[in-house]
Amino acid sequence: FSAFNPEVIKDVELYKSSVPARFGGRLSSVLIINSREGNKKNITGLAGIGLLTSRLEIEGPLIKDKSSFILGGRTTYANWLLNLLPDQYKNSKASFYDINLNIAHEINKKNTIYLTGYVSRDRFNLNSDTLYGYGNLNISLKWKHVFNNKLNSTVTGGYDRYNYKITSEKLPLSAYKLGFDINQSYFKAHFNYYLSSKHTVEFGLNSIYYL
Question: pTM of the predicted model, to two decimals?
């Protein structure tokens, strides 16, 4: 399954070499995922039900022509399929879900704010009592400001969390739990100054604090 919900994605951009300096000196590659804004005029949505997964997406205005939201979720129920496998795999389990939320609000023609949230959880085991699980949590607040027709800025602050855990509790004498997590808070400020139709100057700063 794709790690990204295509219902809430606007576009994707991949840098495989010559990564721009604004990405903090990444050496290999950078994948940019831009979420789209919700419908600012009407509430719309879509849903899908499959043999293994289901999905739901809804979007609409919070304040007509000013604010919008888009909410998307996916989940799987693959356990019934695993139960059809040979006996050595009948005790296997697999499940996941993810939820995306994007809120955009246009304060005025020069200022727009965006709130983005993402949470996911995966759990599985393969014919054993050992359960593997991992998850992600991301939240960010972005402010776009236009100073004039030559200078604009994007200021972003956010928090990311990744966690991984293995548990085995069937036999008390050998039961164990093993887990770790990575947490970070970040702040980014990016400015564009248009010298002419052919030249643009970009500058800013980026700070990450690992918890």
Answer: 0.86
